[in-house]
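hey so i finally got around to running the thing on that chain from the lab meeting. sorry it took forever, my laptop kept dying and i had to restart like 3 times. anyway pasting the input first so we r on the same page abt which one it is
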Amino acid sequence: SFSCSLIGFLHIHPKGPCWKSHFLDHTPGLGHLRKTLGLARFSHIFALTYGSGINILYALETTRNTIKPGGLHEAIKRVETDIRDGLSLSMALQKTNLFPSSMVRMIQIGEKTSSLETSLLYIKDAFDTALKRRVDHFIGLIEPVMFIVVGLILAWAVSSIFLPLYETLSTLDY
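ok and heres what got predicted. didnt touch it at all, straight out
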């Protein structure tokens, strides 16, 4: 009942999605996966929209609208504001402290060489590779825990069936 009301509250309150995202982003193991996935999505969607010849601000807005509310969503809003104020994309991304320095450097190179779309697609591929490795590692860590949990559940089920049966049969006289 409490969890249902909490989930309902998070959906109703205007800041609820941000709180939920903040909680999930700071969950050990899951948070890093979510951040990497968000950055890969940002790189991919932004590369496609910008590469289609769309204005950089409109491409950022479109990208932001496809990303769920949370830290990345708010960071993209700040990037849009900074670009309107005259900063370059790489400087605006660096100012948020959310984007990795390697990503900022790649974008900076893409800006200087007029190949921003290509740089963004390379970034997306790098994040996709890292994400696949992290998911495989995460699953590798979860598998032994799942085996232990399933084993304990089976042991509990077997003991809850056979112990009462054994006690009943031991009281019978032949």
